[in-house]
Recover the amino acids of this structure.
């Protein structure tokens, strides 16, 4: 004999139902969690203020969330997201009437300067190096900033930029070669990590 269970469930307060459309895709959530910190670090390197960096990265992830389905259809979603982030950082700098490149102010805030015997000579050398960095491609600049200014290793950079570790190492090698051409063999970033 089967008894029917017709117990009434307690009434719950009227709350709007959360649908799948209201929640971010789990892949987006994972992507956000994996990349937010490195994106903010990169943006802060350029914008020089944590709050500005946070705002630029929030804008980046809002854009990515709105277009996440299309992002996933791209050949390399991580590389696409990086390009969106880089452009948002530049836009944010322009909106704040700051120059987007980090290279002018960064010459005055280097590890080499902190331990320099000749601070003026070190500033002059740093300015020359940062001017030379501006002559690299965007990808080369990004890799060099992440490796040498942020202290990331090749696999970390590869994960953020959506490329292989071998491509990161190759980019560093080509960037250093280009910097040697611009500055001369004795004045590159080699050994400055």
């Amino acid at each position: 004999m089967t008894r029917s269970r017709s117990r009434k469930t307690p009434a719950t307060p009227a709350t709007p139902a959360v649908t799948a459309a209201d929640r971010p895709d789990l892949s987006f959530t994972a992507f956000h969690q994996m990349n937010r910190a490195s994106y903010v670090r990169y943006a802060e390197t350029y914008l020089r203020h944590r709050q500005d960096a946070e705002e630029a990265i929030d804008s980046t992830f809002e854009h990515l969330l709105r277009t996440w389905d299309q992002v996933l259809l791209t050949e390399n979603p991580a590389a696409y997201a990086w390009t969106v982030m880089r452009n948002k950082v530049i836009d944010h700098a322009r909106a704040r009437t700051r120059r987007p490149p980090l290279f002018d102010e960064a010459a005055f805030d280097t590890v080499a300067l902190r331990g320099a015997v000749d601070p003026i000579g070190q500033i002059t050398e740093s300015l020359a190096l940062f001017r030379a960095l501006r002559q690299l491609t965007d990808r080369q600049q990004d890799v060099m900033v992440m490796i040498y200014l942020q202290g990331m290793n090749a696999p970390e950079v590869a994960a953020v930029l959506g490329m292989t570790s071998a491509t990161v190492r190759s980019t560093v090698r080509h960037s250093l070669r280009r910097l040697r051409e611009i500055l001369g063999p004795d004045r590159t970033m080699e050994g400055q990590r």
Summary: Residues 26-47 form the longest helix (22 residues). The radius of gyration is 23 Å.
